Amino acid sequence: MGLYISLFKLTEEGIKNIKNAPNRIEEGIKAAEAMGGKVIGFYPTMGEYDYVGIAEWPNDEAASAFLLALGSKGNVRTTTLKAYTIEEYKGIINKLP
Q1: Regarding the domain delimited by 2-94, which CATH topology (the fold level of the hierarchy) does it fall under?
Q2: 34 phi and psi angles, rounded to 5 deg
Q3: Residue ranges of the domains in the chain?
Q4: pLDDT one-digit tens code per residue, 41-94
């Protein structure tokens, strides 16, 4: 399973219906799990981004499908980073010429 860090910004629609945000978050976590993901953590934040989520996905395609489905609901926009463990990073570095 790959590790992904997602940064979320509320859209106008999302902020307009902010009182429903806790329910939307719970639904999103359940949807991620139904699509093969595992949410490690999800945090409301202050600053440029409104939420930060950390999840494991079996592959890039599964992560992308979930994020596209989430974005299509119109409440958030995402920026996602694929992350590596230190051990994975060492393996990448060891492959350098």
Answers
A1: Alpha-Beta Plaits (3.30.70)
A2: -65, -25
A3: 2-94
A4: 999 999 999 999 999 999 999 999 999 999 999 999 999 999 999 999 999 999
Instruction: Kindly report the number of other CB atoms within 10 A of residue 43's CB atom.
Output: 11
* DSSP letter for each residue of 10-58: E-HHHHHTGGGHHHHHHHHHHHHHHTT-EEEEEEE-SSS-SEEEEEEES
Written as one letter, the residue type at 80 is T
- 37 vs 34: CA distance, rounded Å: 7
Question: ∠ at Cα 5 (92, 52), nearest 5°?
Answer: 160
pTM of the model: 0.91
Over the stretch 7-30, which tens digit does the pLDDT of each residue have? 999 999 999 999 999 999 999 999
User: For the sheet containing 51-57, what is the strand order?
Assistant: 38-44, 51-57, 2-10, 76-83
